[in-house]
């Protein structure tokens, strides 16, 4: 028992201590649970990069050079090799990853901004459903397209000025001359408008009806009427037809932008961000406007000058073009778009408007200093951008010359203002380089023939004519071999695009020489004194007509750019008609075949074509003069006695079996065509020109071999008097026909 008590007493203190300690700990835990939770402080993480001194001391380092501790104690702060220098941040992998992330972030920001704009504007883009956007040019919409030529054009309050190389200037001279001679009632110049005088009255001017797009909404952006594949095809077509001549844009970048645009549109439609049923304001950023103009030009080329979708594409960017023209601040990157606008107007038969716009672009080039080497190199430091600016400037220079000759109005860029040391495009653009040299010769020819005298010069500068002709021939020889027109014996290996450039350069050489020699045809006396020169210009005109006829029969190049090629045709036709009437005995047997070849091409003219309207104005004027000069119906009773050569020529022109009624039908009292109840088309104009040609030759005793049996009595002096013709004195016919030049 004692043992038990001892044992108990021995254990008791320990047990008491243990119990007391446990009770105290439980009380502390209970108190701690009742109080606020206690947070234990944690040490900061060690920095991954530390200097050697901080590592040795095992203390915190901020990773700077020097770090905070070493800097305070003036200690040498060093880091272990491969710690900071040559680390991951300096590696190529890090830089590539960083660049990729930055690019992705920029794209995300752009997408986010576009999405916000879509939400705020309520579908400003107006995407049509993909089924509607798949419409191509080969599948026109149900509503018949409105020809741009038939759209409302207000009549000018004042007659526009036209220079001595234009048609309107020469026509005014002829009318003034006839007025002074006592011939009244020739009418007032209507200008080259859609309501030119034609065999039937033009419809009254009315405002155009609202345009319909592929899905019936006139407010939808017209670019969505074309599919993505159609967009790419039209861009490739533009490059083949225009881009290789005037390289003002990079077509690959345009196609890339268009591809991204269509991809974004599909994504927006798929995500529901775009409302297919709601109209939109359209896409009008600079690159998209350039894309639209490329598409507009291509569709107009496909439509031979008329395209509804092309017109709507242009209308969608017209406000953007006006803003650039009126903006006080000019940027080089905006000029290619304006060049495209000018090209579009030219192929819509609006050459005066094209001349006006390209003149504005030329003046902008001068403002930017692109015409001087030093200012160009200061303004554009990047080599690639400078090369683009050089191509742009020289393209504007060539187009300025081209349309100035067409309208008869002066150049905007004068050769004296252009730095002789200004770089020209590289040899990868042979056509543009050749045309620069051609345009410089054109400047000299302009000064030679651009006289504002109302009457032709009495004396010809034979030395100047010979010198300019020599320069033109040397230019033709300098054309690179790949752009030389192959001879009949050589192989035809060039592509369609290169062959078109070859024929264009060949025709331009002929045209420049025609302009140089044309003053020889001013009168019959001038032809007699310079018969060799007159024969030269006639042969050039005949060669041009044969080349165009062959081109039309063997390729589709002529039909694709009829506006461009008809310039050469009309000029050559006028030369042949002028020479045959001023000197019929000498030239009519030589020219008759080519004359009817030209009329065969005229038959293909559209009655809505600007060129056909210009030709009709000349035919109408000659028909008005004829009766007043004695070519009336009573002189035409023996019109059925045409010789065999005339009948063969008529058969060539597609007129065999049609009665040539002499002047009884060609010169009616009202100056209208015999079948004037229908619009004047190419076939009718061919018929009218045939009547005039045969009448003129018959009056000189050439058509059937005798004057008595011809259309009119011979003038005093007989057929050998080359100074007279069926339509008046020495120079009167030239003044009238000069309208065709």
From TrEMBL:
Keywords, alphabetical: Coiled coil, Metal-binding, Nucleus, Transcription, Transcription regulation
Comp. bias (Polar residues): 1-22
Zn(2)-C6 fungal-type domain mapped to chain residues: 50-79
Residue ranges with Basic residues bias: 150-160
Region feature (Disordered): 1-41, 126-167
Domain of life: Eukaryota
One CC-aspect GO term: nucleus
GO MF term list: DNA-binding transcription factor activity, RNA polymerase II-specific; RNA polymerase II cis-regulatory region sequence-specific DNA binding; zinc ion binding
GO terms under biological process: DNA-templated transcription; positive regulation of transcription from RNA polymerase II promoter by galactose
Coiled coil: 94-121
Name of the protein this chain belongs to: Zn(2)-C6 fungal-type domain-containing protein
């Amino acid at each position: 028992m004692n043992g038990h008590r001892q044992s108990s007493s021995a254990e008791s203190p320990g047990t008491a201590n243990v119990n007391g300690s446990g009770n105290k700990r439980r009380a502390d835990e209970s108190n701690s649970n009742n109080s606020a939770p206690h947070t234990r402080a944690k040490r900061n993480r060690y920095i991954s990069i530390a200097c050697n001194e901080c590592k040795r001391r095992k203390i915190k380092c901020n990773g700077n050079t020097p770090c905070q501790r070493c800097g305070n104690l003036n200690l040498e702060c060093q880091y272990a090799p491969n710690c900071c220098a040559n680390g991951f941040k300096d590696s190529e992998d890090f830089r590539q990853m960083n660049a990729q992330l930055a690019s992705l972030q920029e794209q995300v920001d752009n997408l986010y901004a576009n999405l916000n704009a879509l939400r705020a504007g309520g579908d400003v883009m107006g995407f049509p459903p993909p089924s509607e956007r798949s419409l191509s040019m080969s599948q026109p919409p149900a509503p018949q397209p409105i020809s741009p030529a038939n759209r409302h054009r207000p009549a000018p309050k004042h007659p526009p000025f036209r220079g001595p190389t234009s048609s309107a200037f020469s026509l005014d001279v002829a009318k003034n001359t006839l007025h002074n001679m006592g011939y009244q009632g020739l009418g007032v110049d209507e200008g080259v408008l859609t309501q030119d005088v034609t065999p039937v009255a033009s419809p009254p001017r009315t405002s155009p009806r609202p345009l319909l797009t592929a899905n019936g909404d006139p407010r939808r952006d017209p670019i969505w009427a074309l599919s993505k594949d159609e967009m790419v095809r039209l861009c490739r077509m533009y490059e083949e037809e225009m881009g290789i001549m005037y390289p003002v844009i990079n077509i690959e970048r345009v196609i890339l932008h268009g591809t991204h645009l269509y991809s974004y549109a599909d994504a927006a439609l798929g995500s529901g961000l775009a409302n297919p049923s709601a109209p939109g304001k359209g896409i009008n950023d600079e690159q998209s406007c350039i894309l639209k103009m490329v598409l507009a030009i291509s569709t107009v080329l496909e439509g031979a000058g008329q395209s509804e979708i092309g017109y709507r594409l242009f209308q969608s960017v017209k406000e953007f073009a006006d803003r650039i023209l009126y903006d006080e601040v000019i940027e080089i990157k905006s000029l290619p778009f304006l060049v495209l606008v000018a090209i579009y107007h030219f192929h819509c038969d609006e050459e005066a408007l094209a001349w006006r716009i390209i003149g504005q672009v030329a003046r902008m080039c001068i403002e930017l200093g692109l015409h001087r080497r030093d200012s160009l190199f200061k303004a554009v430091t990047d080599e690639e951008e400078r090369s683009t600016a050089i191509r742009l400037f020289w393209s504007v220079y060539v187009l300025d010359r081209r349309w100035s000759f067409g309208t008869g109005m002066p150049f905007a860029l004068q050769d004296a203002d252009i730095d002789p040391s200004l770089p020209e495009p590289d040899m990868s653009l042979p056509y543009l380089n050749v045309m620069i040299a051609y345009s410089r010769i054109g400047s000299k020819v302009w000064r030679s023939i651009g006289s504002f005298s109302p009457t032709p010069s009495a004396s010809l500068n034979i030395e100047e004519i010979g010198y300019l002709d020599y320069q033109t021939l040397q230019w033709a020889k300098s054309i690179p071999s790949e752009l030389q027109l192959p001879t009949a014996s050589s192989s035809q290996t060039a592509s369609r695009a290169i062959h078109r450039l070859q024929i264009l350069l060949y025709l331009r050489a002929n045209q420049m020489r025609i302009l140089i020699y044309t003053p020889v045809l001013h009168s019959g006396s001038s032809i007699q004194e310079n018969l060799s020169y007159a024969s030269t210009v006639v042969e050039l005109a005949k060669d041009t007509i044969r080349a165009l006829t062959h081109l039309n029969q063997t390729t589709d190049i002529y039909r694709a750019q009829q506006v461009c090629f008809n310039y050469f045709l009309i000029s050559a036709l006028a030369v042949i008609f002028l020479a045959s009437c001023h000197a019929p005995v000498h030239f009519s047997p030589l020219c008759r075949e080519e004359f009817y070849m030209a009329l065969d091409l005229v038959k293909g003219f559209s009655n809505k074509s600007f060129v056909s309207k210009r030709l009709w104005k000349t035919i109408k004027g000659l028909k008005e003069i004829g009766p007043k000069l004695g070519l009336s119906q009573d002189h035409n009773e023996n019109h059925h006695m045409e010789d065999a050569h005339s009948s063969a020529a008529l058969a060539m022109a597609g007129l065999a079996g049609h009665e040539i009624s002499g002047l009884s039908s060609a010169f009616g009292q009202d100056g209208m065509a015999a079948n004037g109840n229908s619009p004047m088309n190419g076939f009718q104009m061919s018929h009218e020109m045939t009547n005039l040609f045969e009448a003129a030759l018959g009056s000189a005793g050439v058509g059937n071999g005798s004057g008595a049996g011809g259309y009119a009595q011979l003038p005093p002096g007989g057929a050998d008097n080359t100074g007279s013709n069926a339509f008046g004195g020495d120079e009167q016919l030239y003044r009238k026909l000069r309208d065709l030049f």
